[in-house]
Amino acid sequence: MNIAHRYLENVVEDDEEKTSMIFQDSLSAPDLPFPIFQISQAIRRYLLYDINTVTWLRRTHNILGVFIGSLPQSPQQNVFLGLPLELQPEEATLLLEKGLAFIADDLQIHKIAIKSVPKGLTDYKATARREAFATAKAVVKHKQLKTQEVLQRLKVDPAISSRDKTIDKDEHDESIFDTPQEPSSEPILSGIVPYSSTPTTSYPPMATPSKHSSSPLPEANASSYALFKHLHASGYFMSPGLRFGCQFSVYPGDPLRFHSHFLAMGHDWDEEIDILDLIGGGRLGTGVKKGWLIGGALKNSDTNAKPDAITKNAQSSAAEDSEDFHVRTFCVEWGGM
Fold first, then answer.
1. Which of 229, 230, 261, 290 is catalytic?
2. Nearest Cα residue to 94 out of 67, 59, 65
């Protein structure tokens, strides 16, 4: 039991080392600005296909998005989804304003790139296959070394164990026409299946999309974007709030660690809000142990001015960052429940 326990501890330590290495790789910033792919002109949707970019945005910029792709191992379920990641218009607009990304027309880029695919495509495929075989061999060798360590700790001769497996195989496959083979001290690596994977991006072998192929800027709602930017600047994470009947579910930290604290709705500063909406939102938020948060942008120089210029065009970001720009929020809770 003690030997098995120590073996499990070593396996866990190795897995943690591998996980930390992958984790450190995911923290590295992508090449900036990175492309956000717009897949339709009629219905604008903004997608990310690079997992390193997705992880980096989540950890360093509080950008969540929504996974919409199926998992290759479980394609007939929709509980757990994978790449690509769809960004909310507010998230895409914020990334553009910060200069971290640009909008790329997915259709046009692929039409151009397919015509100019480099002649080294065959070499790229061969290199990918060699790397896949090398990875598979390294995994097999690592497992064999671990097996030998366990057998040595249990004081079992690895050669005996290997010989027993060979005898069992010969009993089933032995034939008088087979040519006898000399035993080899090298690990058996025949029949290895390469660790191949489908790339989530088309580059390489295609050229990386360039910023000059940028499409029109996202059209985010002025009132909702003002509230989104204000809460994001305060360190909150935000995901779509459709399941709670609001625009954003607001989290104090990563949703993998925290429950949401607020259900947020953005409004124009002089917009009239129906009292029934306030009561219904307050009761809904209290019923799910959250606060119903409403907010809007206010210009101190003109309290009656609408914040239409805030986000109709992302080019007006300078006006947003000025001292006159101010967002006020109010939290409604129902005290009768």
1. 290
2. 65
Q: Catalytic residue among 46, 251, 267, 299, which?
A: 251
Q: Packing angle between helix 89-97 and helix 222-233, nearest 10 degrees?
A: 60
Question: Can 290 be counted among the known catalytic residues?
Answer: yes
Tens digit of pLDDT for each residue in 210-223? 776 556 678 888 89
Contact between 333 and 291 (Cβ < 8 Å):
yes
Q: Is 212 a catalytic residue?
A: no
49 is catalytic: no
The pTM of the full predicted model, rounded to 2 decimals, is 0.66
